[in-house]
Design goal:
By secondary structure, this protein is an all-alpha fold. It has 14 helices and no strands. It has one domain (2-341). It has helices at residues 10-28, 41-58, 67-92, 104-111, 131-149, 154-172, 177-182, 188-201, 205-210, 212-232, 240-261, 268-275, 277-299, 308-341. The radius of gyration is 20 Å and the shape is globular.
Length: 356
């Protein structure tokens, strides 16, 4: 399918927007009546999207040579910035932190993506939400190793490495930080994304147009299933790839094939939120904490996370600040770093702005 190797898919940016806003909502802690807190499924969606995008990149001869270098340039600088910001905050105002301390050893492990227990049973880096970024770097390194072994089969080899390591950790029975982290079945969701790329690749343009209405229904239904699964079904960690990952996989594959059929979203705001989703993910907890916990006592329901208006205010503020950080910090920095150190090719990380 020609569109698989051309440009950015705006539908993927739409899913990134959905995933990032869901995570922001989840971290407000707000809940409607008996419904369980929802929104963490955004991470599952991110993992499946990541697997799809990485397989897509490695399937192109033009984007293979600088794969790991460009992934590091994309992921590491913002992650390091917010990790150090948390560390400095813990040094200045330790009473404001829950489990994060100004421990320099923990900071170094966090900066270099080494899993550790922040407190008993809590396997998280200095930047709490950075656990998923640690997985992303692990995925990239596994694929880079696959690229060394075979350029044409890098995605499959890397996926095999991820699954083999997971299996070895589970079989070992050891409960250390490394075995728990790398043995978590959530890594299957990334592999599912890789599989999804090759499944979508086999769907021709004519076929995609024939079934696009069914795909639209599947995309909407999967988004609803993600919400319902987390809101009403108590799932166990070891079946998360089934309860949430499978629905995320259907959403991603449906969105991709819909784009191939000609139904690729053109909503500029949603595409922009999708572009900003990474820095929004990293920064949103700072916004929520400042507005919902530091300022709320002085402004009442307008900022209180316990009220619908307060929750909505915090979510909108987090998204707005994420967009500003993306436009005026993340995007310019990535352009400079990629041009200078990423093979002298301009970055292609974000969806092109659709024409009116």
């Amino acid at each position: 399918m020609a569109t698989q190797s051309a440009g950015k898919l705006n539908n993927i940016q739409l899913l990134r927007a959905y995933a990032s806003v869901a995570v922001v909502y989840f971290h407000t802690g707000f809940r409607f009546g008996p419904v369980h807190p929802i929104g963490s499924f955004g991470v599952d969606l991110f993992f499946v999207i990541s697997g799809y995008i990485m397989a897509r990149i490695l399937d192109s001869e033009k984007t293979r040579p600088y794969f790991l270098r460009r992934r590091i340039l994309r992921i590491v600088p913002p992650y390091w910035f917010f990790t150090i910001l948390v560390f400095v905050s813990a040094q200045i105002a330790p009473r404001l932190m829950i489990s994060t301390t100004g421990n320099k050893s923990e900071l170094l492990k966090s900066l270099f993506f080494i899993p550790f227990f922040k407190s008993p049973g809590l396997l998280r880096p200095t930047l709490f939400v950075g656990w998923s970024i640690n997985y992303e770097m692990y995925f990239y390194c596994a694929l880079a190793l696959g690229l060394v072994l075979s350029t044409r089969r890098a995605a499959w080899i890397g996926s095999g490495i991820i699954l083999a390591v997971m299996s070895a950790c589970l079989v070992s029975g050891h409960r250390g930080a490394l075995t728990q982290f790398y043995g978590d079945p959530i890594v299957i969701e990334f592999v599912m994304g890789v599989v999804g790329y090759y499944v979508c690749k086999r769907v021709g343009a004519v076929q995609s147009r024939t079934i696009k209405l069914l795909l639209l229904i599947a995309a909407i239904a999967s988004a609803l299933v993600l919400t319902a699964s987390e809101g009403f079904v108590l799932y166990l960690t070891h079946i998360r790839a089934i309860s949430l990952g499978l629905a995320a996989w259907v959403a991603v594959c449906s969105a991709v094939v819909l784009a191939a059929s000609g139904w690729d979203t053109r909503n500029r705001l949603l595409i922009l939120i999708g572009d900003a989703s990474y820095v929004l993910y990293l920064a949103h907890t700072f916004v929520i904490y400042f507005l919902g916990r530091a300022l709320a006592p002085h402004f009442g329901a307008w900022l209180s996370l316990n009220s619908p208006i307060g929750m909505l205010t915090d979510v909108v503020a987090a998204v707005g600040i994420g967009i500003l950080l993306h436009l005026y910090a993340e995007r310019p920095l990535l352009r400079i770093l990629t041009t200078r150190f990423g093979g002298h090719r301009p970055p292609s990380e974000f969806a092109p702005t659709p024409k009116a």
